[in-house]
Specification:
Length: 411
């Protein structure tokens, strides 16, 4: 392929893209197990319209040129801190996604710690349950920190005793997820908070998946522990707007218990001919659309809109669990708290079940141990349930016997 010599008409470009899209998986029909999140009618349109209304604006210039974006980002952060029981003085900012939020929290923790120790080269370690997202390794490898992963308990949740055993004098951060991606279970954040306070380390809560879902599930009486700043040991929290906040990508949020910790995140550079360059994000240019769309969707849905979605998602989750466990031998792993499920069959090969689902037009999500399948479900998966369960029963019935090996999950 060479660089196009001449431009082409817009309608031809659009037609070419439509053609390419025709080969994509049917995410609208709930056949993709992650990546895309559907909410109630109108939400996607409100987000898209707001995104387009601020299509050209750049949130890098929010302070100097786009007071609209500055105000919207501040309001998104304030609304979310209300949801997450942010104490007086707590603060935060938007980022491009869960990974950036986590990387920034690690950076803040490292620098806050180095300053407190008076050791600008201290090489700390992070202690996380094996179920935490690989974004922590991304951050740690960028900053030359060590990561120690610890086994989870029989309930697949973080085991505070195992984490404590892995800690030493160089541990700067411990992590709990709300929920973890592999099994969809929320870690025991109150116990991790107690551990963090007792050992004087920073607890980060990765609520990238559940930040904008768990508060409503709790309000509906689901048994999810306090997972946010209500726990005094929580020093930072990441929560993705572009997952169960149902906002357009790219949009996440990261929060700190106090301004001093947030300040440790800021990269305040005065090194080039243009003078001072101070940003709270890893990226420079940021789409104004992402900020505007998040503000618009939070205000469009409000607490009652998110409650309605949470109620439907949890009823849907319960129906999927019942349907999966009605297939002889199939088991859901652990007790999923939100709408992520992992499930398998002790006597059937998970790769073979996945191949059967693939042959029936589903993109199978996978988990390696225990070998099984994986789903992160939004309302897109609600109408797909009967077809999914019928095809799963078919795929399980014709699957090869289990091999005892891990499933060959790939992301
Ligand atoms: C628990 C958890 N944390 C962090 C992330 C990273 O988020 P992103 O893909 O937006 O960078 C994910 C992504 O699925 C996740 O499940």
């Amino acid at each position: 392929m060479t660089f196009p010599e001449h431009g082409q008409p817009a309608d031809r470009i659009a037609a070419l893209m439509d053609q390419m899209k025709a080969g994509d998986a049917d995410w609208r029909g709930g056949r993709v197990p992650l990546y895309v999140f559907g909410a109630t009618p109108g939400v996607a349109e409100v987000g898209r319209d707001a995104f387009n209304a601020f299509f050209s604006e750049n949130a890098l210039g929010a302070k100097r040129a786009f007071s609209s974006l500055k105000r919207m980002e501040e309001e998104v952060i304030a609304m979310a801190l209300d949801l997450f029981h942010g104490p007086e003085g707590s603060t935060g900012n938007m980022t491009s996604g869960g990974t950036e939020s986590i990387v920034m929290a690690i950076k803040a923790c490292r620098d806050f710690n180095r300053a407190a120790r008076g050791d600008a080269r201290h090489r700390g370690n992070l202690v996380l349950p094996v179920t935490a997202h690989p974004a922590f390794e991304k951050g740690a490898s960028l900053m030359d920190l060590e990561v120690r992963r610890t086994p989870v308990g029989a309930d697949l949740r973080a085991d505070p005793a195992a984490m404590e055993a892995a800690m030493d004098a160089d541990t700067i951060m411990i992590v709990g997820s709300t929920p973890c991606f592999p099994y969809g279970v929320v870690d025991p954040i109150p116990a991790l908070s107690e551990l963090a306070l007792r050992r004087g380390v920073w607890l980060h809560v990765d609520a990238c998946v559940g930040g904008y879902f768990a508060p409503f599930a709790r309000a509906l009486g689901r048994p999810i522990p306090a997972f946010d700043f209500a726990n005094p040991g929580v020093m930072s929290l990441s929560a993705d707007l572009h997952k169960f906040g149902f906002c357009p990508k790219p949009a996440s949020t990261v929060f700190y218990r106090d301004a001093a910790r947030h300040a440790a995140q800021t990269l305040d550079l005065d090194v080039w001919p243009n003078g001072r360059f101070a940003t709270n994000t890893l990226v420079g240019t940021r789409p104004g659309g992402g900020v505007a769309a998040a503000w618009a969707v939070l205000n469009f849905l409000g607490r009652d809109g998110y409650m309605q979605i949470a109620e439907r998602l949890l009823a849907m989750r319960d129906a999927y669990v019942a349907g999966i466990e009605a297939i002889p031998g199939m088991r859901v792993f652990g007790k999923p708290d939100l709408s992520i499920l992992a499930f398998g069959h002790p006597g059937r090969d998970a790769d073979s079940i996945a191949a059967g689902m693939s042959a029936r037009g589903w993109i199978p999500g996978m988990v390696r141990t225990p070998p099984g399948l994986h789903l992160m479900m939004s309302l897109l998966h609600e109408p797909a349930r009967p077809a999914f369960l019928a095809d799963l029963a078919g795929a399980v019935a014709e699957a090869k016997p289990a091999t005892g090996k891990q499933a060959s999950a790939v992301y």
